Amino acid sequence: MTANDKIISYEPMIHSIVQQLNILYDKDEYMQVGRIAVYEAVNKFDPAKTLCSESQFVYTLIRQRLIDEIRRVSRYQERNSLVKNESLSNTSSDDSYNLENTAVKVLNEREYRWFTLTASGYSLTEIAPLLKVSPSTVKNIRKSARDKLRGSFTP
């Protein structure tokens, strides 16, 4: 049996896992991730090294890969949110300068450091060691800084 035949035989399993994980959008992409996982699992599977059957091994690998993909997409969407075109046309070159000036005045030292690192493109997990705090503390700093900045711009 070729690898392509194996992938086709596991297609219902991939579909079932996609349904179990409540994947509603981009099903084709997740199905493809599942197919790649099947290919890798079939090539990795060694009955001498495991106590499980091939189908159990394939199932586990598909599920893990799909969950990893969901997390990856979620992180991407969290970092790169969509913006309406109207809001982009209303911005001016002075906006970032005004935001930074406001941030200097309103935020404390740790919040301002978070602000500058975030503006530079650092993620929460990258900022935590730089501030010498845990990621959950960085989240609290972020929340506090955002609240202060929002408060300074609302009349």
UniProtKB/TrEMBL annotation:
The keyword Transcription applies. Residues 9-75 form the RNA polymerase sigma-70 region domain. NCBIfam families: sigma70-ECF. One of its GO terms (molecular function) is DNA binding. It holds the Pfam family Sigma70_r2. Sigma factors are initiation factors that promote the attachment of RNA polymerase to specific initiation sites and are then released. Sigma-S contributes to the protection against external stress, thus playing a role in cellular fitness and survival. InterPro entries: RNA_pol_sigma-70_dom (IPR014284), RNA_pol_sigma70_r2 (IPR007627), RNA_pol_sigma_r2 (IPR013325), Sig_transdc_resp-reg_C-effctor (IPR016032), WH-like_DNA-bd_sf (IPR036388). It comes from Jeotgalicoccus coquinae. This is RNA polymerase sigma factor SigS. GO terms for biological process: DNA-templated transcription initiation.
